[in-house]
From TrEMBL, chain A:
<dbReference type="InterPro" id="IPR017871">
    <property type="entry name" value="ABC_transporter-like_CS"/>
</dbReference>
<keyword id="KW-0547">Nucleotide-binding</keyword>
<dbReference type="InterPro" id="IPR027417">
    <property type="entry name" value="P-loop_NTPase"/>
</dbReference>
<feature type="domain" description="ABC transporter">
    <location>
        <begin position="2"/>
        <end position="238"/>
    </location>
</feature>
<dbReference type="InterPro" id="IPR003439">
    <property type="entry name" value="ABC_transporter-like_ATP-bd"/>
</dbReference>
<dbReference type="Pfam" id="PF00005">
    <property type="entry name" value="ABC_tran"/>
</dbReference>
<protein>
    <submittedName>
        <fullName>ABC transporter ATP-binding protein</fullName>
    </submittedName>
</protein>
<dbReference type="GO" id="GO:0005524">
    <property type="term" value="F:ATP binding"/>
</dbReference>
<keyword id="KW-0813">Transport</keyword>
From TrEMBL, chain B:
<feature type="transmembrane region" description="Helical">
    <location>
        <begin position="178"/>
        <end position="198"/>
    </location>
</feature>
<keyword id="KW-0812">Transmembrane</keyword>
<dbReference type="InterPro" id="IPR030802">
    <property type="entry name" value="Permease_MalE"/>
</dbReference>
<feature type="transmembrane region" description="Helical">
    <location>
        <begin position="133"/>
        <end position="158"/>
    </location>
</feature>
<feature type="transmembrane region" description="Helical">
    <location>
        <begin position="32"/>
        <end position="53"/>
    </location>
</feature>
<protein>
    <submittedName>
        <fullName>ABC transporter permease</fullName>
    </submittedName>
</protein>
<keyword id="KW-0472">Membrane</keyword>
<keyword id="KW-1133">Transmembrane helix</keyword>
<dbReference type="Pfam" id="PF02405">
    <property type="entry name" value="MlaE"/>
</dbReference>
Amino acid sequence: MIEINNIYKAFNGKEVLKGISAQFKKGETNLIIGGSGTGKSVLLKCMIGLVKPDQGNVLYNGRDFYHCDKDMQQSIRREMGVLFQGGALFDSKTVEENVRFPLDMLTSQSAEEKQERVAFCLQRVGLEQAAKRMPSEISGGMKKRVGIARAIVMNPAYLFCDEPNSGLDPLTSVKIDELIKEITDEYQITTIIITHDMNSVMEIGENIMFLYQGDKLWEGVNTDITKTTVPELKEFLFSNKLLREMQE
Amino acid sequence: MSVIGKYFIFLGTLFGKGEKLSVYWRRLMEECVGIGVSSIFIVAIVSTFIGAVSCIQTAYNLVSPIIPISTVALIVRDMEILELAPTITCIVLAGKVGSNIASELGTMRITEQIDALEVMGINSSSYLVLPKVVAAMLTFPMLVIFSAFLGILGGYLAGTLTGVITERDYLYGIRDSFVPYNIFFMCVKPFVFGFLIASISSFKGFFTSGGALEVGKASTQAVTNSCISILIADYLLAQLLL
């Protein structure tokens, strides 16, 4: 379980996060939604240690990420898998090398063990045929899947996905959502997804948090979200003409 | 001042907790090829022509009958060893290697590749930058020795083929009044310049934020700042070591 308490962050005096608190349970797909510039990505970065919050703490199964020694922080980091928005694949390495990279750097496994694990992860995301290709030779959807394979190669306890559907067509987007959901259920990972995608919200959002101008305005499950009375969330949800008509 | 302070803090992070030695060895070899071997062609072209032009222009200016013509070769040799090979070669390398390092790291930064390393708990500056700095410090002196050799050879070819100096005079001139210490001085310069070019360019690239435009700006700043630092260090080394 991940628990965030009173996370506050400001850049050059501008408040981006205004004391966010939440709990993300093990084995659940947790979604953080909101419009552009509401602080979703900053919150994610605070949780994974890329941006240090000005106040508050982030607890990983009770271990305080920002108030523990470096060894503990390192061990928490090794339990994280992160899927970045653009995949963040290393351009100079093949798909296979990208997935193997955390194993090469952080473990002392034999070459055979690493190969076996990489093959399993690539097969899990359906990319065993693309192992020898360079990131520049594969599509956006494939890059996301390689990013997922790299994120799960170390058997993470926590999976963070920053806009996994951005730049993808609706069909590929659904496939990526399904893959993340399957992996979350299969390995009982605590998954946190930052998204704008309403399809993801309705399909895989087991626990949803809505951010608006750095504040948490709503939290709940996907079956309740359309019944919300929060005007900002209603505006966000029904900004799409089709959804608005369906609601009416 | 804050940028200079940030630069020194950045240098400190290179020697923070690192990765396995085998990882660094592999990275160092990759960088030696990327920085050193891939620069041989441009260094060869520049050095040969600079040596050739130095010979022709020195001969053009030495018209006094009381100065022996072999002095042309002596001047070409000393110019090559003391200044042209180490400084001009490193300025050329600042353009080629510096811009390459800054744009590579800048692109890695804006495409979140550096963030990916940091999230894995890898010391990204040490993993990415330290091998580049060490590779530059190792390969630049070799390139400069190669450059000095080709510069003197260029002078020989230009001088003898155009008839401004005979082969005998040239060979006599390049051995006349030779000071072996100058070779040591020639090797110290690229060692220092290599450090400056690789670390300044890495610093500029590593802290790029924004998009493609900022990567281009970082690359330009890396080359400009590297060239300025080379010229300042060149002067200081000359004052200190000669």
